[in-house]
Write a structure and sequence with these properties.
single chain, TPR-like_helical_dom_sf, mainly alpha, identical protein binding, Tetratricopeptide repeat protein
Length: 236
């Protein structure tokens, strides 16, 4: 439901996940974590950033440190909270928090782990938004280089990591490198009706703009607007 823009339905489903509350403790902390992060994502992607932040802060305050997934769950919640702060314009604070989270993930689970891949990908986004363009490229290149070794990662997920690398390269002014990254992934992702496909199309439009092909870029952006409106606003 999150992937096709049905955010209210997604929040309702996540709320029903734990038997009584998203703040249940002990053995129920795992389902509680999934529910809280799911509600956060539903609110965040619907544009309710204040509501998303409130869910995370409430969950962090009530998180049971004796539960089995304590560290990974707390780090996930902290990472998402930093993401909210990033979108609110608190760049340095968000980057600082994400650097700490990435460092702990490396120490606990190693560089070739899903925890570390997610932490570094979000850190790369934060660095790019905050103006650390070259470092953002370096971090995302590390993600691309390691993601294939993580158990359970699909080829499409690896391709999407390259799309994000292309986006970081464009923001760093390295347009030719960005184009090379996109050449191999366009056929795989472009035809899928997913958020990844929308991201790919927006990166392609951004690339076209940077190449000075303004008429083509205008067409690409115009074609994207209805898709974004349908997914994120719920209108056709």
């Amino acid at each position: 439901m999150l992937t096709d823009g049905r955010f209210a339905e997604a929040e309702k489903a996540y709320r029903a996940l734990p038997a009584d509350s998203t703040l249940r403790r002990g053995a129920d902390q795992g389902p509680a974590l999934v529910a809280a992060l799911g509600i956060y994502k539903a609110r965040f992607h619907s544009g309710d950033w204040a509501g998303a932040e409130a869910v995370l802060r409430e969950f962090i305050a009530g998180y049971d440190p004796t539960s089995a997934p304590f560290r990974s769950g707390l780090l996930s919640a902290r990472r998402e909270l930093a993401h909210v702060r990033l979108h609110r314009g608190e760049y340095e604070e968000a980057v600082g928090e994400l650097r700490e989270i990435a460092a702990e993930c490396r120490q606990r689970w190693g560089e070739v782990s899903l925890h570390c891949i997610i932490a570094h990908s979000v850190l790369g986004e934060a660095l790019s938004v905050a103006g650390y363009s070259d470092e953002a490229v370096t971090v995302q290149r590390q993600v691309v280089g390691r993601i294939g070794g993580v158990p359970g990662i699909s080829s499409k997920q690896s391709d999407f990591a390259r799309v994000l690398l292309a986006s970081r390269l464009i923001k760093a002014g390295r347009v030719d490198e960005a184009e090379q990254e996109l050449v191999g992934v366009v056929p795989t992702l472009e035809a899928t009706a997913t958020e990844a496909a929308l991201t790919l199309r927006s990166v392609l439009a951004e690339l076209t703009t940077k190449q000075g092909r303004h008429q083509d870029a205008a067409r690409q952006w115009a074609e994207l607007l209805p898709a974004y409106a349908e997914r994120h606003v719920g209108v056709a």
